[in-house]
From TrEMBL:
Residue positions where N6-(pyridoxal phosphate)lysine is found in the record: 21
Highest classification ranks of the organism: Bacteria, Pseudomonadati, Campylobacterota, Epsilonproteobacteria, Campylobacterales
Record keyword NAD present: no
Entry protein name: Pyridoxal phosphate homeostasis protein
Domain Alanine racemase N-terminal: from-to ranges: 3-207
Function: Pyridoxal 5'-phosphate (PLP)-binding protein, which is involved in PLP homeostasis.
Cofactor: pyridoxal 5'-phosphate
GO molecular function, a single term: pyridoxal phosphate binding
Record's keyword annotation contains Cell wall biogenesis/degradation: no
Length: 209
């Protein structure tokens, strides 16, 4: 069993998003034909460029935006009509996107569950309140779950705790329509799945030679 087959087996009951930040459109095309349909980009400009190339080739790719959204890139992101915006990190950016949308955009609230200054995302203690505020004030955003990045640590217990905190918030938000708990990247996706993740974002582990 090769590397890709192993990953597909480990994520067979999980929504797999290939984080394609460091690969070109030809590589995305190759992996699309190997069975991966969802690709996530960190930068709006890169998403627009790759999407344009691959749309011309009639590939039915589901594009996700997984990076921090800068306010001057909102219009360009909206033009791409991604299937999911993973990284809404608070009410302010939510309102800015909402007022420019003319369609419903599926969105995840990004939570800084590791409480690390290097990470974006809403504070754990504010997450539920902010989620409900966004639902109330931003009718063009279809909030459908949460996203977080695991603790930047070699300590598995610490990483696990950060995932468990996100999952606890996800559970509390299920009665408000949350159905996606996006946790886990190349280094920690198996642990994230153990902690309840139903969507993972994999880059280096997929695309390594």
């Amino acid at each position: 069993m090769n590397n890709l087959e192993q990953i597909l087996e480990k994520t067979k009951n999980i929504h797999l998003v290939a984080a394609s930040k460091y690969v070109n459109s030809d590589t995305i095309k190759k992996f699309f034909y190997l069975g991966i349909t969802d690709f996530g980009e960190n930068q709006v400009q890169a998403l627009a460029q790759k999407k344009e190339i691959l749309d011309d080739q009639k590939l039915d790719i589901k594009w996700h935006f997984i990076g921090t959204l800068q306010s001057n890139k909102i219009n360009l992101l909206i033009k791409q009509n991604p299937i999911l915006w993973h990284s809404c990190n608070g009410l302010k950016i939510a309102e800015a996107v909402n007022k420019r949308l003319d369609y419903k955009l599926d969105t995840l609230l990004e939570i800084n569950s590791a409480n690390e200054e290097s990470k974006s995302g809403i504070d754990l203690n504010k997450a539920i309140e902010e989620y409900l505020q966004i639902q109330e004030k931003c009718p063009n955003l279809n909030l459908c779950g949460v996203m977080s990045i695991g603790s930047h640590s070699q300590d598995q217990d610490q990483i696990k705790k950060s995932f468990e905190k996100t999952f606890k918030i996800y559970e509390a938000l299920q009665k408000y329509g949350a159905r996606i708990c996006s946790m886990g990247m190349s280094n920690d996706f198996e642990l994230a799945i153990q902690c309840g993740s139903n969507m993972v974002r994999l880059g280096s582990i997929l695309f390594k030679n």
